[in-house]
């Protein structure tokens, strides 16, 4: 059965799915619903890859028919930008539910890169909600809006997360809601915490950033271009204002994304995933929104807006340039402490940006997140 389904998948991709199937049929029966659901997620994902190929003219390795189960719900709703349909997924384990974890992905990627983490959360009894942001992933594919976030301002993604939370809460009104955000997702989660923090039972900011001394100047530069009518254009050189220095500490830079993770397989996955690279560069208006989002959370004024009762976990690699190699993460923790919060902070020694994707570390990261969330339920 596997060979007929797999077709021309590459060996690493196929091996990962074969392991999932082996676990499906041989693991403890309590895990069966999780792995059955994850297998259907992979079918759904590769079906989307096929549709991507149809639209871009690149032939797919395989096109699979979508299969939907109650455990995996695809959700669509109108974005805050009043233009795009947001595509989101609700992953529901077949067991007693402890709570809801809303997962917020980062810049230029998509939510289904987090399937190992989603699986870990489901195994512990948590429902997981995750969307693909405007301009990203399946949302961008279906709306033909790659790299275009709309024209409603930098709060758009945060407000979309709130819309998703309201949809999920209608189905599960009695469960506590937690939010996990990585990288830009942590910026969105921090923006969310400042406006809707009272609706959360806890927040996890992963791979977040501290203050950026050059950000105001960069915002002014891009704003001039947008105000002059250049918002819909895309100047890739403007992205260098944010990303040019990411690899300055690393040797043997080959792909340009070495700052993401030291593992070469993660680097290749990051490059080759058709939903993980923006088909077109982020347009100038959206890049401005990204910078304005960072600016809005880049001082102690942000921390003062977050409810002091909100439990917060800060996690990062101490070799992550986004977090200033740990210094920026501790600055954010300091802002929170000085405004009456009591955050928990953990840096993972020797690791870069995507701590949740290192093969030897991802289990520990998931366990740390789950231990923090579980402590809020006691």
Task: Kindly describe this structure.
It is a single chain. By secondary structure, this protein is of the alpha/beta class. It has two domains: 1-69; 70-376, Alpha/Beta hydrolase fold, catalytic domain (Rossmann fold), CATH 3.40.50.1820. Helix content is 45%, strand content 13%. It is built from 14 helices and eight strands. It has helices at 2-6, 11-26, 32-56, 115-123, 137-143, 156-171, 184-196, 215-230, 236-243, 264-272, 284-296, 300-305, 327-338, 362-376, and strands at residues 72-78, 85-91, 99-104, 126-132, 177-182, 202-206, 312-317, 344-348. It has an eight-stranded mixed beta sheet, sandwiched between helices. α2 (11-26) packs antiparallel against α3 (32-56), α7 packs across α11 and α8 runs antiparallel to α11. The chain is globular.
Number of helices: 14
Radius of gyration: 20 Å
Q: Order of strands across the widest beta sheet? A: 1-2-4-3-5-6-7-8
For this structure, what is the CATH class of the largest domain?
A: Alpha Beta
Number of beta-strand segments: 8
CATH architecture of the largest domain: 3-Layer(aba) Sandwich
Structural class: alpha/beta
Key descriptive features of the protein:
Rossmann fold; alpha/beta; 13% strand; 8-stranded mixed beta sheet; 2 domains; 8 strands; 378 residues; globular
Strand and helix layout:
Elements: H1 2-6, H2 11-26, H3 32-56, E1 72-78, E2 85-91, E3 99-104, H4 115-123, E4 126-132, H5 137-143, H6 156-171, E5 177-182, H7 184-196, E6 202-206, H8 215-230, H9 236-243, H10 264-272, H11 284-296, H12 300-305, E7 312-317, H13 327-338, E8 344-348, H14 362-376
Helix pairs in contact: 2-3, 4-14, 6-7, 7-11, 8-11
């Amino acid at each position: 059965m596997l060979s007929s389904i797999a077709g021309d998948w590459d060996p690493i991709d196929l091996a990962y799915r074969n392991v999932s199937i082996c676990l499906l049929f041989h693991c403890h029966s309590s895990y069966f619903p999780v792995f059955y659901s994850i297998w259907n997620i992979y079918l759904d994902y590769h079906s989307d890859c096929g549709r991507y190929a149809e639209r871009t003219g690149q032939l797919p390795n395989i096109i699979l028919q979508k299969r939907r189960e109650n455990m995996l719900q695809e959700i669509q709703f109108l974005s805050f930008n009043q233009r795009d349909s947001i595509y989101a997924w609700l992953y529901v384990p077949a067991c007693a539910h402890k709570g809801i974890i809303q997962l917020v992905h980062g810049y230029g990627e998509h939510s289904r890169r987090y399937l190992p983490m989603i699986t870990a959360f489901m195994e512990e009894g948590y429902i997981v909600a995750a969307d693909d942001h405007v301009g990203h992933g399946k949302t961008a594919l279906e709306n033909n809006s790659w790299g275009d976030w709309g024209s409603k301002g930098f709060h758009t993604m945060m407000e979309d997360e709130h819309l998703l939370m309201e949809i999920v809460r209608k189905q599960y009104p009695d469960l506590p809601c937690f939010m996990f955000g990585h990288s830009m997702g942590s910026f969105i989660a921090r923006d969310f915490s400042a406006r809707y923090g009272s609706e959360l039972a806890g927040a996890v900011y992963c791979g977040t950033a501290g203050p950026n001394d050059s950000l105001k100047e960069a915002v002014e530069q891009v704003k001039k271009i947008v105000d002059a009518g250049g918002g819909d254009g895309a100047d890739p050189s403007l992205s260098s204002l944010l990303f040019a220095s990411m690899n300055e500490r690393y040797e043997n830079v080959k792909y340009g994304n070495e700052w993401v993770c030291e593992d070469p397989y993660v680097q290749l996955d990051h490059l080759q995933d058709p939903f993980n690279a923006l088909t077109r560069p982020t347009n100038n208006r959206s890049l401005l929104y990204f910078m304005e989002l960072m600016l809005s959370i880049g001082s102690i004024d942000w921390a003062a807006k977050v409810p002091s009762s909100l439990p917060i976990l800060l996690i990062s690699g101490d070799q992550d340039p986004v977090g200033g190699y740990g210094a920026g993460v501790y600055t954010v923790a300091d802002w929170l402490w000085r405004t009456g919060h009591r955050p928990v902070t953990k840096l993972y020694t020797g690791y870069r940006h995507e701590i949740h994707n290192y093969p030897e570390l991802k289990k520990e990261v998931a366990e740390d997140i789950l231990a923090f969330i579980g402590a809020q339920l006691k």
